[in-house]
Amino acid sequence: MKPYAFGIDLGGTTVKCGFFKNDGSLIEKWEIPTIKDNGGVQILPDIAAAIKGKLSERNVSPEDVEGVGIGVPGPVLANGVVNGCVNLGWGVFNVAEELSGLLGGIPVVAANDANVAALGEQWKGGGEGHQNVVMVTLGTGVGGGIIVGGRILAGGHGAAGEIGHIQMRKDETAVCGCGKKGCLEQYASATGIVRMAHLALKEERKLPSLLDGKEITSKEIFDAAKAGDDAALGLVDTLGEMLGTALAHITAVVDPDVIVIGGGVSKAGQILIDAITKHYRTAAFHACRDTEFKLAVLGNDAGMYGAVRTVLNR
Amino acid sequence: MKPYAFGIDLGGTTVKCGFFKNDGSLIEKWEIPTIKDNGGVQILPDIAAAIKGKLSERNVSPEDVEGVGIGVPGPVLANGVVNGCVNLGWGVFNVAEELSGLLGGIPVVAANDANVAALGEQWKGGGEGHQNVVMVTLGTGVGGGIIVGGRILAGGHGAAGEIGHIQMRKDETAVCGCGKKGCLEQYASATGIVRMAHLALKEERKLPSLLDGKEITSKEIFDAAKAGDDAALGLVDTLGEMLGTALAHITAVVDPDVIVIGGGVSKAGQILIDAITKHYRTAAFHACRDTEFKLAVLGNDAGMYGAVRTVLNR
Lengths: 314, 314
Known about the structure:
homodimer; alpha/beta; Nucleotidyltransferase, domain 5; 2 domains; 5-stranded mixed β-sheet; 10 helices; 12 strands
């Protein structure tokens, strides 16, 4: 194997770049802005320039680069074709081939951003030491990544791990960003728990007492719950019921060794894990009932680590 | 690769044995009884004797056998350890190692029976030509198998594909064989639809008119539905809603290229596929909404084909 590799995590605002040794140790990380003008036509040339600049700065020959892994915020097929990225203005094209061409033929592997984050956590984070990992990212939405035998499960349409869109309620009237109603992320994301708090305020005319007069955020709700506020505890329990039940569905399908919980909401810590596992243990198939839950540890670097892993473990 | 291989499908009543060329063509198939006395201690020696007898009968040297694949009715880890088979009286031990020892070292691969059936259908059945397949077996219960990249997804506890135990209802009072309440197989199996018919009779005091006076079976219900009976159509629709919704959950996790429906209930044919897809298309994530449904084609031979595939594609 060649001595160096790059892991790139392409986000809607910034591109996180990592320069690695082939043993997975990070040499340097830096960021460049994501310029989304004109259908995002400049994004890949900017990334190629960043990589070539780093090689030049460090006097490393492109011949000494094993490859570049890149995580992309949209569905990506196993062959590198991105199936549209609304956030970037991208349509359907082969990201891996195009970036490789801009890099003079350095091999490129592309995958979905939630999936590379899961691979990063499996490799060097909360799932370290396990080959089969389900990762759930609780942020604005609910993302997911399925790692089987140490590799990303991409799916036939690049949609494996889209667990935020498991339909948890048939009677929901609010519409999810995906167009359906009753999706997991309408309840179990930062946005979801705030939405439920507003519903509690509006429909039941009561709001967690500790939240009175404050802008409601996911963090405020968890803080109130930790302080013992009943209404906030109820909201956290509902999130736990939705997510715990969905994870019981998920483990009946892929039966991971471990479940890793990450994303901004996971900063709530043990109270979140407790709320999820309480409902998970009830709903799960007996062989999976004791599956371990871990908090993610790599934070915003998970995608960069997972991206480089895709080229170091082809 | 050596010229021959065996595929063994170990069931609770009979063992289906297949002798194959290494290109996957079947030379001969036969059955032996499953003797479950004394904790099933005789089962593997009987299978070993059947294999050695066939080799002797055909003047084939054990040296010319690539391996033996065996499907087992219980959870099996990727390393061949069976995690207890209640039906056979088996506890926890390494089936693959033990059978290999009885065969003088011929390599053995063991996997769960529903999983090898799924692999058989992916290889030479309803999923042929696709690498990523979800198979659902609708029989007495609801079994499942997940094929990713042409290989069985076994799971960390041998429980991947246990989709019959996805909890579809929180308000169910009847208990599933697994000890939980509200599992998919309580609604979507042959037993499940008959159970729902009895509930309709008891609770609503009305029974599908065409069923009056007959013993209720899954086949009778589907036949009545095909003849236009409203109550039977309602029962089929409920089965379709439960299974279609569960399959939408499943595709949001593993996103297969195709979904194969098999087992005795699948003999109902297109009316079953129509009932499932009607609800599936509503509940599925948009990228998976048009995932194709196929009927299984190998019938009782699926396990034997899938079992031999595990040794021909290691």
